[in-house]
Amino acid sequence: MNYKEIDSLIKLLDDPDREIARHIEGRLLSYGNEIIEHLEDAWEQSFDTVLQERLENIIHKIQFNDVKRELQLWYKGGAFDLLQGAVIINKYQYPDLDTQKIINQVEDIKREVWLQMLYDMSAIEKIKLINHVFYNIFGFSGNTSNHQDPQNSYISQVLESKKGNQITLAVIYLVIAQRLDIPVYGVNLPQHFILAYVDETREYAPDEQVLFYINAFNKGFIFGKRDIDSFLKQLNLTPEEQFYGPCSNIDIIRRILRNLTSSYLKLGQEEKVKEIGELLEVVNPAAEDSSV
Question: Could you tell me if 47 and 147 lie in one domain?
Answer without folding.
Answer: no
